[in-house]
């Protein structure tokens, strides 16, 4: 899967990487092609468009890293946005209670029973004592299937063939697991071909009866956007804690994997990569992005180059601080570094004066940063190097040049002056800004 998307993205990047400079026109072309590639992979149109907008905004605001080509930088931006779209970091299971109860739900044929076995094996291999529960009581064959899987992987299966009260069966199983010192209970439930009210009601009853730590929807990735709408339905009814996407080894175009997180706000936790019981993997957004882009080398090259630049800039800034000289060029490179830091609030709040600064920076709204950058870039070289030149006529000219109201320029000048003052007095904050480490 993702092969066609990967091929198409490769083509786009091959063209871009050849360019020594990027113009608005060739970025626009590339973005159009990426958008089409996403739509072809069955990504929801709204998400594809938002993705492209995000990449474009990032491209405009990026500083140029001299040692890599602009095309390589675009690859890195697309990579980062893709990781973000896929959910950022991995969302692993938490084992807060003993036993931790995991309830699997999903449509018939999605791979639920197989996945119950796969998950049991994965957790068993992590040293956990696992118990499976046969909750698909309407199909004796489903109970048989789970028992066969249980024997194969050496995990006990709790089944009550004479009862159809799944909630009660689940409660019994969890009770027994508690006395047996079991770590994890995995409940397989009944699915239907389509979502219907009776099925949902039964699932809600089980959920209320056992209060599982995790309610995971097993969804067939081959269904594409249909899988996403199934996910939305289930999420509304059951307040899911995550997804397991199956059959990603097949020829699915991958749209479900790309959009499900963004559409539902709920993370993909595992992916099924085959029929075998050991083919369940933890879902890592960054690995998935590099599988799709196949450009891990370019991404790490740009990361390294960017880190070197940061170091150089930090050194320069340190010298300036020592000489008590902080100008708009420094401010600009600060803004860019802060933008890279992302959640700067979390760092700043530990530092004296940090809270105000985070507020003044208007947190991390990228559009705001982009506008601030545009304002500084509209200043003349002399103005940037000598902040004391700033006066009202200059502010008016700069506002016109950068297409913002003059109040925004005044606001920025004020922030700059505030920062300059803080830099002069600062201990830890200045050191952090200059690339030093946080105080112990
Ligand atoms: P359930 O009705 O949801 O319980 O679905 P099953 O567990 O019976 O699975 C339905 C079919 O999908 C079976 O043939 C499984 O072997 C197959 N299957 C499940 N997960 C995967 C997967 O990740 N990849 C592939 N290729 N097949 C899978």
Automatic annotation (TrEMBL):
Subcellular compartments: Cytoplasm
Domain SRP54-type proteins GTP-binding: from-to ranges: 267-280
Species per Swiss-Prot/TrEMBL record: Victivallis lenta
Family: Belongs to the GTP-binding SRP family. SRP54 subfamily.
GO cellular component: signal recognition particle
Cited SMART domains: AAA, SRP54, SRP54_N
InterPro entries (alphabetical): AAA+_ATPase, P-loop_NTPase, Signal_recog_part_SRP54_M_sf, Signal_recog_particl_SRP54_hlx, Signal_recog_particle_SRP54_M, SRP, SRP54, SRP54_GTPase_dom
Keywords: Cytoplasm, GTP-binding, Hydrolase, Nucleotide-binding, Ribonucleoprotein, RNA-binding, Signal recognition particle
EC number assigned by the record: 3.6.5.4
Name by which UniProt lists this protein: Signal recognition particle protein
Role according to the record: Involved in targeting and insertion of nascent membrane proteins into the cytoplasmic membrane. Binds to the hydrophobic signal sequence of the ribosome-nascent chain (RNC) as it emerges from the ribosomes. The SRP-RNC complex is then targeted to the cytoplasmic membrane where it interacts with the SRP receptor FtsY.
Subunit structure: Part of the signal recognition particle protein translocation system, which is composed of SRP and FtsY.
Any Pfam family matching the protein: SRP_SPB
EC class (word): hydrolase
CDD domains cross-referenced by the UniProt entry: SRP_G
Sequence positions that bind GTP: 106-113, 188-192, 246-249
PANTHER family noted in UniProt: SIGNAL RECOGNITION PARTICLE 54K PROTEIN SRP54 (PTHR11564), SIGNAL RECOGNITION PARTICLE SUBUNIT SRP54 (PTHR11564:SF5)
Gene Ontology BP term (one): SRP-dependent cotranslational protein targeting to membrane
Description of its domains: Composed of three domains: the N-terminal N domain, which is responsible for interactions with the ribosome, the central G domain, which binds GTP, and the C-terminal M domain, which binds the RNA and the signal sequence of the RNC.
GO MF annotation terms: 7S RNA binding; GTP binding; GTPase activity
Superkingdom of the source species: Bacteria
Catalyzed reaction equations: GTP + H2O = GDP + phosphate + H(+)
């Amino acid at each position: 899967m993702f092969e066609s998307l990967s091929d198409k993205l490769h083509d786009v990047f091959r063209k871009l990487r050849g360019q020594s400079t990027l113009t608005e026109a060739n970025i626009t072309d590339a973005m159009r092609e990426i958008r089409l590639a996403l739509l072809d992979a069955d990504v929801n149109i709204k998400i594809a468009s938002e993705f492209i907008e995000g990449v474009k905004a990032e491209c405009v605001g990026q500083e140029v890293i001299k040692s890599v080509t602009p095309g390589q930088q675009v690859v890195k931006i697309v990579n980062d946005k893709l990781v973000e779209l896929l959910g950022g970091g991995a969302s692993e299971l938490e084992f807060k209670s003993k036993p931790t109860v995991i309830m699997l739900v999903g449509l018939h044929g999605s791979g639920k029973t197989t996945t119950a076995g796969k998950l049991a094996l994965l957790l068993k291999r992590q040293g956990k004592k696992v118990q499976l529960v046969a909750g698909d009581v309407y199909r004796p064959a489903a109970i048989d299937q789970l028992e066969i899987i249980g024997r194969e992987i050496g995990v006990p299966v709790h089944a009550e063939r004479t009862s159809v009260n799944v909630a009660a069966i689940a409660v019994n199983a969890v009770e027994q697991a508690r006395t047996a010192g079991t770590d994890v209970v995995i409940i397989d439930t009944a699915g239907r071909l389509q979502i219907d009210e009776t099925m949902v009601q039964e699932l809600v009853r089980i959920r209320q009866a056992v209060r599982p730590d995790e309610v995971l929807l097993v969804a067939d990735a081959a269904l594409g956007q249909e899988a996403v709408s199934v996910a939305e339905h289930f999420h509304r009814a059951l307040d899911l804690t995550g997804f397991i996407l199956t059959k990603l080894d097949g020829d699915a175009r991958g749209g479900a994997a790309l959009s499900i997180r963004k559409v539902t706000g709920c993370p993909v936790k595992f992916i099924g990569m085959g029929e075998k019981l050991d083919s369940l993997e933890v879902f890592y957004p960054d690995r998935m992005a590099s599988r799709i882009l196949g450009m891990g080398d370019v991404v790490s090259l740009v990361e390294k180059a960017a880190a070197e630049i940061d170091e150089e800039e930090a050194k320069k800034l340190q010298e300036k601080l020592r000489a008590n000289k902080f100008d708009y060029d420094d401010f600009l490179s600060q803004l860019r570094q802060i933008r890279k830091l992302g959640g700067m609030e979390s760092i700043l709040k530990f530092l004296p004066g940090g809270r105000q600064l985070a507020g003044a920076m208007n947190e991390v709204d990228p559009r705001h940063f982009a506008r601030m950058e545009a304002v500084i870039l509209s200043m003349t070289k002399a103005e940037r190097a000598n902040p004391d030149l700033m006066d009202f006529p200059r502010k008016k000219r700069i506002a016109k040049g950068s297409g913002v109201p003059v109040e925004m320029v005044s606001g920025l000048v004020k922030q700059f002056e505030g920062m300059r003052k803080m830099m002069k007095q600062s201990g830890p904050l200045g050191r952090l800004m200059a690339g030093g480490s946080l105080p112990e």
